[in-house]
């Protein structure tokens, strides 16, 4: 099982990658998911917009797109694409550090792969609660 972080034509700094990988594995363990592999790809708004249009038929900017690639139930293999442009803009908008916003989105993608949704109001509230729990545990606050 491997977790990879790949910047694609963007600059991104992730501190303590090994610690983050261990924490991500613990999210899947808590949620009863066997993690087989996870690829995080950090990209630009333009790149993610093109993916959003091509794969989801959405013509909007987004901070994250998550793909579940496993064909085996309770086994997760995924690709998560994150727009660093959106992360930076949202960090400023919500008055949080870029590091914290990046981790929120990283955890958000993992939670999607664990089965959490965010389309309805109730689902979005639960997702935000789970993100906040992950951030508090990871950053120790």
TrEMBL record:
<keyword id="KW-0540">Nuclease</keyword>
<dbReference type="GO" id="GO:0004521">
    <property type="term" value="F:RNA endonuclease activity"/>
</dbReference>
<keyword id="KW-0690">Ribosome biogenesis</keyword>
<keyword id="KW-0255">Endonuclease</keyword>
<feature type="binding site">
    <location>
        <position position="108"/>
    </location>
    <ligand>
        <name>Zn(2+)</name>
    </ligand>
</feature>
<dbReference type="GO" id="GO:0008270">
    <property type="term" value="F:zinc ion binding"/>
</dbReference>
<feature type="binding site">
    <location>
        <position position="112"/>
    </location>
    <ligand>
        <name>Zn(2+)</name>
    </ligand>
</feature>
<comment type="function">
    <text>Single strand-specific metallo-endoribonuclease involved in late-stage 70S ribosome quality control and in maturation of the 3' terminus of the 16S rRNA.</text>
</comment>
<keyword id="KW-0862">Zinc</keyword>
<dbReference type="InterPro" id="IPR002036">
    <property type="entry name" value="YbeY"/>
</dbReference>
<dbReference type="Pfam" id="PF02130">
    <property type="entry name" value="YbeY"/>
</dbReference>
<keyword id="KW-0963">Cytoplasm</keyword>
<comment type="similarity">
    <text>Belongs to the endoribonuclease YbeY family.</text>
</comment>
<dbReference type="GO" id="GO:0006364">
    <property type="term" value="P:rRNA processing"/>
</dbReference>
<keyword id="KW-0479">Metal-binding</keyword>
<dbReference type="GO" id="GO:0004222">
    <property type="term" value="F:metalloendopeptidase activity"/>
</dbReference>
<keyword id="KW-0698">rRNA processing</keyword>
<dbReference type="GO" id="GO:0005737">
    <property type="term" value="C:cytoplasm"/>
</dbReference>
<feature type="binding site">
    <location>
        <position position="118"/>
    </location>
    <ligand>
        <name>Zn(2+)</name>
    </ligand>
</feature>
<dbReference type="InterPro" id="IPR023091">
    <property type="entry name" value="MetalPrtase_cat_dom_sf_prd"/>
</dbReference>
<keyword id="KW-0378">Hydrolase</keyword>
<protein>
    <recommendedName>
        <fullName>Endoribonuclease YbeY</fullName>
        <ecNumber>3.1.-.-</ecNumber>
    </recommendedName>
</protein>
């Amino acid at each position: 099982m491997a977790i990879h972080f790949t910047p694609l034509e963007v600059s991104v700094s992730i501190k303590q990658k090994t610690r983050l990988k261990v924490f991500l594995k613990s999210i899947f363990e808590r949620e009863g998911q066997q993690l087989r592999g996870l690829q995080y790809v950090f990209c630009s708004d333009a790149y993610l917009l093109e993916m959003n249009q091509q794969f989801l038929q959405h013509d909007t900017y987004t901070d994250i797109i998550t793909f579940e690639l496993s064909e085996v139930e309770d086994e997760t293999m995924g690709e998560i694409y994150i727009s660093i442009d959106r992360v930076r803009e949202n960090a400023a908008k919500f008055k949080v550090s870029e590091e914290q916003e990046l981790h929120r989105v990283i955890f958000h993608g993992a939670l999607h792969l664990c089965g959490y949704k965010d389309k309805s109001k109730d689902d979005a509230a639960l997702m935000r609660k789970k993100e906040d729990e992950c951030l508090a545990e990871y950053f120790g606050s």
